[in-house]
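Q: My labmate handed me this sequence with no annotations at all. I'd like to see what the chain might look like in three dimensions before we decide whether it's worth expressing. Could you predict it?
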Amino acid sequence: MAGRILWVVGAYLAGTIPSTLVLARLRWNHGGSALVADARRDTGERDPHILMTTRMGAVWSGAAATTDVLKAMVYLLAARELGDLSPAWLAACGVVVVLGHAFPFYAARMSGRGLAAAAGVYLVLLPWEMVLAGVVILIGVALRNSGIATTVAMLSVPVVAAVQGQPAAYVAMGAAVFLLIVARRLQGVGAVIRSGVPARRAVLFRVVLDTTALPGGGTVAGHRRATPPTS
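A: Here is what I predict for the chain of 231 residues:
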């Protein structure tokens, strides 16, 4: 039991590795300092992965996203191959990796929004479900409507897993990961509501479109993003 708990604790710590902060430090005088100064948790448009594209370039943003996918993927591979864990414990590791990625105990402003870590987990435990989700996201990017595409994609994972007859623990994991992503998107929604946006509308924009509604009827940056959400 103690060994299994250590794998879960390790999953959280692995999830907290701040790829955006590490890369920003490497390029501190070339956009990294501006990225750290501007990053915020209360709106997706100020997510460090999104900002990295404009502050440091698409290559660095892609490197950060790839690192976040790999940290989850490598850890889950290690847990599966070396940990002798049941599906329930592997599922717990998967959820906790995403928890650490989205809600770290340090460098919180530079944390991700759960998508990249979830992709890494799914590529190990639910690969076909992740392939389908990836196709949905790519279609959303092509249509410049990536916010709702990621919502549909992540919601589809537990549904497709259940249809495919995957272990119940993996289905529950997919549902829990989706809820974590929603919880992360909702950070700061209270400030939006206090600015004059009706609560239902503010929550809908955050949860479904992954963007922020403004009192005048617009959004911070619009939900039709050219840059895919990779955090």
